[in-house]
Amino acid sequence: MTIHDVAVVGAGPAGACAARGLAEAGARVVLLEKHALPRYKTCGGGLVGRALAGLPPALRAAVESAVVERACHAAELHLREERLRFATRRLRPVISMVMRDRFDRALVAAAEAAGADVRPQCEVRDVRLREDRVELATPAGPITARFVVAADGATSLTARKAGWSEPRRSAPGLEAEVSVAETHFTRLAGAARFDFGVIPGGYGWVFPKGTHLSIGVATTRQGGVNLHASLARYLEMLGLGRLDRVEKHGFLIPLAPRREGVIRGRVLLAGDAAGLADPLTGEGISAAIESGTLAARAIRDGDGEPSRIAVRYEHGLAALRRELQIGRLLARVTYELPRVRRWIFRACGQAVSEGVTDVLMGERTYASVMSRAKTYAILLGLRKR
Predict the structure, then answer these.
(1) Which residue intervals of the chain are DSSP H helices?
(2) In which element (H, E) is residue 149 found?
(3) pLDDT below 50 — which residues of the chain?
(4) CA 40, 41, 42: angle at the middle one, nearest 5?
(5) What is the DSSP letter of 103?
(6) N or C: which end of the chain has fewer CB within 10 A?
(7) Helix/strand/coil (H, E, C) string of 183-229?
(8) SS3 label, residue 105
């Protein structure tokens, strides 16, 4: 029986980065993906600066030269109810626009080049935890590994089979690839756009790709919001005229880390499977890259001891967890307390927009932004309630 050092489940950014890191360290790694590769992935495809910064320089350069369809140096924030608009601009791209099939393929190719055994169309259907190994049931037969990194998304079957409960909260979203007339495309192609007030408890976005727009809506509300109707209203509000193509795809964004933690025996969760997306923006690629890299590092440095690996992984994630805690507080103000949001943005909306842009760029943290914000006392009061 072949025993792999690590089996990584899911060939998205978290899984591909974990597999690459482990393979580069000399581990025997198998990367399992249930779909054929490359595969379409529902996602706005906005690669923020801090996500790119998490990639090795050579891989980052390859992504920027061959995968990025449009580099947006500007971002716009529109608040409909407040009738406010803010814009930020940077010398480096704030958000680089990609199609996820091409981006993920580049990350998987890097993992394969490092020595990972990539197996597409190999779905994990069951997980059995043993004292010294993990056994995975797949259509191609059983796969055994000393450790498993589960990176198969917000609804991770691997996590569920390994004993985790369902995620506490998820934000449903609806994204569409939209082809429009050239005049409308040119009007919206200069910046990444975010609109608050177009859907209850959430926001809409417009991400310009090479020749089309990715437009979507997401809400933090768990029910009672018609995503299709909200998206239709948003498309109408944008004044796009006749739409040549609208391809819709639904998805879920985890809003909080798993309540049982991210490690169970010899299984580590990474990316959306661990619930590490930014609660304020819903952006999850940067946390996926970071957590996949940290999981690989913990396994590499843990000398095969599950307890040591767990300590290293938890320690590595500590800073990200602190950011998520602040992000949840900011999300509450933004999505659940419209009066407070209105006051904040009328008082210091440009400063807040600049601060969040710096966070997306990876130049600052939410903690550093909040330490200077005029709303700090208000947020502390909310946290104590």
Answers:
(1) 13-24, 49-53, 57-66, 100-114, 157-161, 182-188, 227-237, 285-301, 306-336, 338-361, 366-372, 376-384
(2) strand 143-150
(3) 374-377, 379-380, 382-385
(4) 120
(5) H
(6) C
(7) HHHHHHCCCEEEEECCCCCEEEEEEECCCCEEEEEEECCCCCCCHHH
(8) helix
Q: What is the pLDDT of residues 291-301, one digit of tens each?
A: 999 999 999 99
Tokens of 78: 């529109």
Q: Which of 273, 310, 278 is nearest to 294 (CA)?
A: 310
Residues 63, 106 contacting (CB under 8 angstroms)? yes
| Tokens of residue 109, six digits | 């190719």
Amino acid at 351: A
* Whether pTM exceeds 0.90: yes
Residue 231's alpha-carbon distances to 199, 246, 342, 351, 373, in angstroms, are: 8, 11, 23, 29, 33
List of residues 6+ apart from 245 with CB closer than 8 A? 177, 178, 179, 212
CA nearest neighbour of 147 among 316, 13, 296: 296
Q: Which domains does the chain have, with CATH numbers?
A: 3-72+92-168+258-324 (3.50.50.60), 170-254 (3.30.9.10), 337-384 (no CATH)
